[in-house]
Amino acid sequence: DIQMTQSPSSLSASVGDRVTITCRASQSISSYLNWYQQKPGKAPKLLIYAASSLQSGVPSRFSGSGSGTDFTLTISSLQPEDFATYYCQQSYSTPIFTFGPGTKVDIK
Amino acid sequence: QVTLKESGPVLVKPTETLTLTCTVSGFSLSNARMGVSWIRQPPGKALEWLAHIFSNDEKSYSTSLKSRLTISKDTSKSQVVLTMTNMDPVDTATYYCARTVGIVATSFDYWGQGTLVTVSS
Lengths: 108, 121
Fold this sequence. Notes:
- Chain A is mostly beta strands.
- In chain A, 0% of the residues lie in helices and 49% in strands.
- Chain A is built from no helices and eleven strands.
- In chain A, the strands form two sheets. In chain A, strands 2, 4, 5, 6, 9, 10 and 11 form a seven-stranded mixed β-sheet that branches. In chain A, strands 1-3-8-7 form a four-stranded antiparallel β-sheet, with no helix packed on it.
- The radius of gyration of chain A is 13 Å and the shape is globular.
- By secondary structure, chain B is an all-beta fold.
- Chain B is 0% helix and 52% strand.
- Chain B contains no helices and eleven strands.
- Chain B has strands at 3-7, 11-12, 18-25, 34-41, 48-54, 59-61, 69-74, 79-84, 93-101, 108-111, 115-119.
- In chain B, the strands form two sheets. In chain B, strands 2, 4, 5, 6, 9, 10 and 11 form a seven-stranded mixed β-sheet that branches. A four-stranded antiparallel β-sheet of chain B has the order 1-3-8-7, with no helix packed on it.
- In chain B, strand 9 (93-101) and strand 10 (108-111) form a beta hairpin.
- Classes of the chains: A mainly beta, B mainly beta.
- The interface between A and B is medium-sized, with 25 and 28 residues.
């Protein structure tokens, strides 16, 4: 099975900061990588699909990049509503899926 | 409007079998491009994918839990059912169902609200 790792596991940032989260796959997954945001007590929300495509309705401050094994989620200017946990997920091996362990973004 | 809603027991005893139902609306489980997965999240922990079913009834399971899981669907009722046998306290989690569209490079674009299942005697 394809394994996913994320770094850092948590970070503290201020409103307005540029935040970057990294996701790595244990083998090449082309661009079959999705990003989700989850707030406490809520279901995850799809932010980015196919590594760099912005889901409808998601603010443009979110962006994704990467291919192969290394991927990045960037928040260009952190807003108060962006404090949450972020998960990457591979769909290269559809219909077998894998999530990363998550990165928690909290207030500095 | 696409919605998914999970239902099932709040509490199960160790060794019992868990049955969860995901009722969907706003799309059809018979649509050739649609699929539904079950995903769980223990309290304070990460998301774990469990099982998936496509419109053509093709099924897939987590390697580590395959022996305990069965996924099925009733298209006429717009429901996807997950059963998990031999429940253990470590299976305590919020269980989500989520939709995928497409066969390749899919993503979970809609999620249910989740249902918390506690395993305890």
